[in-house]
Structure formats: C-alpha cells, structure tokens
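Sequence design from tokenized structure. All designs in this work follow the same two-part layout: the structure record, then the generated sequence. An example of the structure record is given first.
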C-alpha cells in the first residue's frame, strides 16, 4: 500500500509513517512529526541514512525540517517544509524551530558573530535561506539585522517573507556562471530544477523540487507550443532536464554541458540535447 506513494514527497515507509497518513496506508507505527530548523549553511538530504548514499537535494539555513525518526548513529528522517521533500539528514544540522521573519534575497550573504563585517563570519548562507530577525543595529553606517541565534547579517540582503519579485526570470539570471552541482540547491552550486525552484520562489511561485515533478505539476501545460511561441518564463522540459525561456530563442539553464548556469540559443540547445543528452523536448509549461 505504501508503494503507491512517491518516497520523495511522502513520509511513508512500511515500518513508519506520518500520523497524517493514518487510515490511508499500512505501517507498523504512525508518529507525529517534530518541527526543527536547519542550522547549517546547507544540509544534504539523502534517500538512506548512509554518508555514502547519493544526495537527493539540500536543505537551506533556517528551513523547517519535520523529524519523524532519529537514529543512534545521528540521522534524522523527515520532511522539508519548503517543498515537501522527504529523506535523511544529519541531526547535527538541526536545531529547535523558530518562526522565520525574513528570507535571504542576495545570492549569498555572511552571518557575523557581532554586527561587524570586520569579524570572521560564522557562515555563508544562500538565497532562499530563512532567518528570524529580532532587531537591527548600525555599525559604521551599515545596517545589520540581528538574528535570534545571536548572529547578524547585512540587512539589505534580506527581504520579508511576503516579498515578491516582479520578474522571477531576472532572479534566475543572477545565477549565471554558478557551478552546476547535481542535487545542489544553493547559489554555490545547483542543478537545473533547483534553479527553477529557487528563482520561482522569489517570484512568489511554489514549484516542486525535481524536474519530473515540475514537468507534471508546475504552472499550466502548453498544449500546442512551438519554439517561436514560447514566452519569457516558460519552462521547457526534456526527460531529466528543464530550462527557462529568457526571451525569443533564448534559454537559461543549469547544465552538465557547460557545468554552469548558462544562457544559450534555444534552437541550438534543442539540437545538441537531442543528439547528445536528453533526447527531444517532452513538454512545455507556463508559470
């Protein structure tokens, strides 16, 4: 009965399931989750509690991770609040939950021990990370946001949680040159679907994590698309890949060909990808 649920999106196993699934699945036990938050700059999420297992995605600083089980080896099984992704993380990367107030808008920004850029930073957090601001202070004419964990960040690098960018594709364009990283989900390295997800989030659009999920769920399906009819912000999918339309005959994507976030002509990319990578375009969608 549990096999019908995608293990990436449903905290359901034969031996354990979230209490919210009681009556819908069979499991040895049902548990209430304990909401925690990520306290590392990035936290790898894996399909098994094994450091040698591949990485599915990454959780960002301050994001909620609801824990359903912990092991004596230091692993936590749970679900990421931002996009519902399920898996295992190191429990050393989690701390008690607090309501976030702001989101990191800069590509990346440092957290400082006091509110002073001359001090060695505590960490480097990516766009999309969440923080709880308790106050502000100014040091040498630069305003800092004071966080609930005692650290401080440059205030102009943050936006309120309800802030929405008018052009989410412009946010994606800020990632140009960022290294490609399979399963990466930060401005230090990310994959094709993470680029879509993170930029869309800045535009107030909730998008699932993996490209196959996006291909069936993101926005609206374009039934009779032609390359020439695609508009800025449309998504072009291949089996295992996604790109963002920038404008007429131009796409932006994190890709293994350049190993970066790159912009290139759509028609040339279609030919190359069909010949060497993912085959033909499978679907196009509009956010």
């Amino acid at each position: 009965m549990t096999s019908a649920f995608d293990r990436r999106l449903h905290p359901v196993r034969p031996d354990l399931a979230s209490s919210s699934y009681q009556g819908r699945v069979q499991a040895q036990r049902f548990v209430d989750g304990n909401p925690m938050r990520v306290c590392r700059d990035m936290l790898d999420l894996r399909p098994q509690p094994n450091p040698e297992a591949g990485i599915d995605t990454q959780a960002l600083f301050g994001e909620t991770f609801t824990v359903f089980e912990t092991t004596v080896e230091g692993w936590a099984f749970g679900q990421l609040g931002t996009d519902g992704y399920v898996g295992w993380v190191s429990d050393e990367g989690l701390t008690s939950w607090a309501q976030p107030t702001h989101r990191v808008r800069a590509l990346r920004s440092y957290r400082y021990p006091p509110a002073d850029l001359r001090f060695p930073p505590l960490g480097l957090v990516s766009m999309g990370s969440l923080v709880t601001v308790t106050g502000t202070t100014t040091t040498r004419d630069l305003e800092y946001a004071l966080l609930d964990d005692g650290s401080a960040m440059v205030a102009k690098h943050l936006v309120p949680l309800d802030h929405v960018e008018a052009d989410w594709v412009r946010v994606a364009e800020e990632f140009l040159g960022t290294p490609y990283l399979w399963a990466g989900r930060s401005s230090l390295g990310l994959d094709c679907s993470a680029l879509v997800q993170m930029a869309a989030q800045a535009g107030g659009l909730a998008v699932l994590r993996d490209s196959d999920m996006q291909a069936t769920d993101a926005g609206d399906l374009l039934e009779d698309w032609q390359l020439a009819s695609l508009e800025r912000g449309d998504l072009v999918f291949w089996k295992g890949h996604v790109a963002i339309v920038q404008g007429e005959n131009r796409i932006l994507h994190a890709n293994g060909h350049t190993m970066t976030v790159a912009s290139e002509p759509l028609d040339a990319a279609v030919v190359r990808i069909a010949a060497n990578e993912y085959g033909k375009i499978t679907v196009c969608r509009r956010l």
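The CA atoms of residues 168 and 203 lie 5 Å apart. We note this feature because it recurs in several other targets discussed in the main text.
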